[in-house]
Design goal:
The protein is an alpha/beta fold. The protein has 6 helices and 10 strands. About 35% of the residues lie in helices and about 25% in strands.
């Protein structure tokens, strides 16, 4: 979910040259495929102020840590779960001795959203809130980061791809269903580049990124059969 920094550009370029995409992320623990995915962006906000003695020269100081906290609080209030927008403030660092006004503070946060049309206004709001808050406290702000994984809505081409997978699953005796998720993967980038992509063609499992991660071994064969069915169907249509 860090944005595939080494391969993202290659994936996007290849997606533009192909008609369908399959990504072998694991299925959901109950065997369901993932349909729509929310988009994700990771951001870093650096706030710079002016250090001063907290007793003798309090008025000369510009508290970067306070400015950062206020800015992150405002940014977190962009959360609107009804619209599928969430902000997670994940890390804050800065300050030192309690008698010194901190001149540097760094915060990191993640933004998730559901609608592609929300990306530009949310991004603009992040910039505005960071800069306005910094100015109010006499500080400067630098915001870096972006939405490396665009939202992946259930478009008509994607629905047709899922129908193709559902047919192959039925022939293999596997129950097909899909659900939306807040997680992201390379499928977000491939779909945004115009290539309809089903991105949970891998085995059934759960507990990802933990010591209790597991895989349902029989699902390896079942998912391989489904993949073969999808490819055969697509090849047959291309030849006809």
């Amino acid at each position: 979910e860090i944005g595939s920094p080494a391969s993202s550009a290659l994936l996007v370029a290849e997606a533009g040259r192909h008609e369908i995409g399959l990504v072998f992320e694991p299925a959901l623990p109950d065997g369901a495929w993932v349909g729509a995915r929310r988009g994700s962006g990771n951001f870093t906000l650096v706030m710079r102020g002016r250090s001063a003695h907290a007793g003798r020269d309090f008025d000369r100081g510009r508290n970067a840590l306070l400015a950062l906290i206020r800015a992150l609080d405002k940014i977190a209030r962009l959360t609107d779960t009804a619209r599928g927008v969430t902000v997670n403030v994940a890390r804050v660092g800065g300050g030192g001795p309690s008698n010194v006004i901190p001149d540097l503070a760094v915060g990191r946060f993640n933004v998730r959203l559901t609608e592609p049309s929300d990306v530009p206004p949310i991004r603009a709001s992040l910039d505005r809130l960071a800069m306005e808050t910094a100015s109010e406290l006499g500080c400067t702000a630098e915001l870096s980061g972006d939405f490396a994984a665009p939202p992946k809505p259930m478009t008509e081409p994607l629905l047709k791809m899922h129908e193709r997978v559902a047919q192959a699953a039925k022939r293999s005796g596997v129950s097909y269903r899909h659900r939306a998720t807040g997680g992201v993967c390379d499928g977000n980038r491939i779909a945004a580049a115009g290539c309809p992509c089903v991105d949970t063609m891998g085995p059934v499992g759960g507990g990802m990124h933990s010591s209790s991660e597991w895989v349902e071994l029989p699902s390896l064969e079942a998912r391989a059969r489904i993949t073969l069915g999808v490819l055969v169907d697509f090849a047959s249509e291309a030849e006809s």
